[in-house]
Amino acid sequence: MRFQFPIIRPASKPGLCVRCPHRLPPFSSALVALLLLAPCALVAGQNGPTMGQIRVTGNHRFTAKQIIAASGLRPGTPASQQVLDHAAQRLSQTGAFSDLVYQYRSRGGTWDAELHVTEAAGFVPCIFDNFIWFSDAQLKAAVARDVPLFDGSLPETQGMQQEVTAALDRWLHAHQIPATTVVRPLVNFYTHKMIGILLRVSGMPMPVKDVQVAGGPLDAAAIRELAPGILVSDYSRHSAQVWTDTTLTEAFQDLGYLQPRFSEPSVATIDPAGKDPSQGVILRFTATPGLRYTWAGVTWTGNQTVTSEELTKLLQLSPGEVARRDRAVASWDAVQHAFGRQGYLTAGVNPVPNYDDRAATVHYDVQITRGPQFTMGDLVVDDPSEKVVQMVSAAWKLKPGDVYNVDLEKESLTEVGIAQAHAGRADKKLVFHRSLDSDTRTVSVLVKFE
């Protein structure tokens, strides 16, 4: 982070000071940059100068009131360059600003200051993950009282994170809860970028003893069968929401309820006093299943090479049947496999649902992206035995130049497994790897036994 602090030095005439040329321009036409200090802040009164007006510029995310409060500056308090330096340092340590410059002007016995800030770009939302005794509003208000810049999000750096955990620890202590707060980053699995921050109570077990879903077609036994991962761990609001967004949603969709909604999780402690979660907690949701849809067919586009009639025969659903998600997914897989039999190994299947809520039906527009056709390239058998290499090569049904066929690939692997046993490699694991070369549109296959 770059700081530009003013360099103040006596001018050639008494009562004048010259500012560092890197500082901001004056913050109004009426305030000439650091002119006519009284006298250069050296004799501003017997008790020294005090802070006067404090102005903030460059801010968008935070209000001036928040930034001034976080800086520690207060009108009427003693003023000095050291005080302003410390204020800038406090703001720097929050991680909320990528750049900060201050300037000031002496007016009688007071200093008017301007803070010009550039706010950091990397803010991510916070989740109060397991503070089961309090609402989000209570926690946010408690933190904001101690951390003026807290608005429910935090910079990716640790400065404000530490301030927030300290504020939450004080809140827990004030409510006689013997626990501390820890920070856990949420990272996107694919991009490895931070997408959120979990604020968690640490040092207090919260084993989930039961999961209950009110509303919907699933009974208690079915719900418990879907939630083994939740039932063997401590409560996590984030994990519970991921479970509803994936496992629970898919269970409803497999029954034709394609657009279910679920409430935020609520937590009840088994402890009658509601204080000690170590005895176990019960996790509760309310489901709104929505309509149960029936299948109304598919419209295909982009399906060169394979006709619409051929693709429709691959579907595991017929018009009028309950539109079960699992059968629809199996249908899209079968369609992709059909293109894989013709060498289109990167073919994409993009189904877009069109819901008719009046008729409670769903019709899919399916866009096929065929991609290039691949042929068989090199077969590499990584084994020290020439006999094994020959047996595997003989078992492989695809020859160089053949249009690659995923069915023949499967048959070949079966034959390789038989050859593996005959070659005395039955105790080894068969490793198969398919590599695509987009330039030559060929497939290289590696087979080895580990």
Assign the CATH superfamily of the largest domain: membrane protein fhac
As a percent range, the share of strand residues is 25-35%
Assembly state (oligomeric): single chain
Largest sheet: 4 strands, mixed
CATH topology of the largest domain: Ubiquitin-like (UB roll)
Helix amount:
25-40%
Give the overall silhouette.
elongated
Number of strands: 20
| Cα end-to-end separation | 51 Å
Give me the secondary-structure category. Answer: alpha/beta
What CATH architecture label of the largest domain applies?
A: Roll
Query: Which radius of gyration do the C-alpha atoms yield?
Result: 33 Å
Sheet with the most strands: spatial strand order: 1-5-6-4
Name the poorly predicted regions.
1-46
